[in-house]
Predict the structure.
Amino acid sequence: MILYEYPFNERIRTYLRLEQLFLRLTEFISRDSALDHHFAIATIFEIMDVGARADLKSDALKDLDKQKHLLDSYRNNPAIAPEVLDKVFNQVDRCFTALNNLVGKAGQSLTENDWLMSIRSRIGIPGGTCAFDLPAYHAWQQGSALQRRSDLERWSSTLTPLTEAIYVLLKLLRGSSAAQKVVAVAGQYQQNLPQGKTFQLLRMALDPALGLVPEISGNRLMVSIRMMRHGDDDKMHATTQDTSFELNLCS
């Protein structure tokens, strides 16, 4: 099954973008080639750009604090194992403390690294990191993979508090609802959202064998999904076939 996600607000949209960047960064760092490590550095800069949003840290702290209060409210619920609840609560609490102790925005300490900032100023220019532009960077790329990885892990460690906070928040959000089987009749699906409840994320799982791609739109009142197919002309075309899929609405 291919999983698609659609955020209902800008905060969750930012969380999802950061999660994608964190996963990419981890993958690039784990490899050995200089080219992969170049894109690891580029990803660090992307995370810094996304993390520069003024209210990101405060939003994440508010969400973590909200989760702590919510988990506390489950203390006397006989259906929930106390040891499992404690484990999740402690994880959220650790993330809150680490993020709260982080000085400034994500990666702010890296802005004091002149060597990294010289790369950042050139990396957005097509071909701007050639050896004749950045000889010191070229020399670093010719070094051992072990040393490059050590440097990348050191630089990316400044992003760890935000990384872990985003992972935990999205994990809890995704686990807040159960999947339901639905059908897009003639390739179209619409659902009115119940009032009085705020949904933050839509998740849908679609069988890849169908060869379809969902076009999702939504707001606080309604969700709409249209099934599309990639045609031979490299354009997306609406399909009229009935299509079943799994849907989650996470709040």
Remarks:
- The chain has eight helices and eight strands.
